Amino acid sequence: QVQLVESGGGLVQAGDSLRLSCAASGGTLSGLTVGWFRQIPGKEREFLAAITWSQDKTFYADSVKGRFTIGRDNAKSTVNLQMNSLKLEDTAAYYCAADFRYRPAPIAAIVMEPRHYDAWGQGTQVTVSS
Questions:
Q1: Is the CB of residue 9 less than 8 Å from the CB of residue 36?
Q2: 94, 81 Cβ separation under 8 angstroms
Q3: Which residues are CB-contacts of 63 (< 8 A; sequence separation ≥ 6)?
Q4: Fewer CB within 10 Å of terminal CB in the chain, N or C?
Q5: How far apart are CA 19 and CA 15, in angstroms?
Q6: pLDDT computed for residue 77 by the predictor
Q7: CB of 47 within 8 A of CB of 112?
Q8: 44-71 confidence digits (pLDDT tens)
């Protein structure tokens, strides 16, 4: 159906900002819940943020709330993750994912779990240095 591609990662200094984008090929992100996750080698994939289609409802992990913002760019058909005040511990591979199942009213327990997503991007590396 839809393939996802992340972009925008790179090497930045602590305190800097970075914007990641998730684009779809072979389909569209319209109508889908899209989430952002990150993973450090040897650790479980960590939920960061998600945005639903209906009402553009957003969800955030406590660890990034206030620093990260998820949003849709309808003109570009992308979902982005604006990351501000980056810290050393933000260093990770960042992934976007799409939930293909229609959910009239997604709840946090659903969007925060990786197992509920059907398609994943290849990941983009974010490295934060001091």
A1: no
A2: yes
A3: 46
A4: C
A5: 13
A6: 86
A7: yes
A8: 999 999 999 888 899 999 999 999 999 9
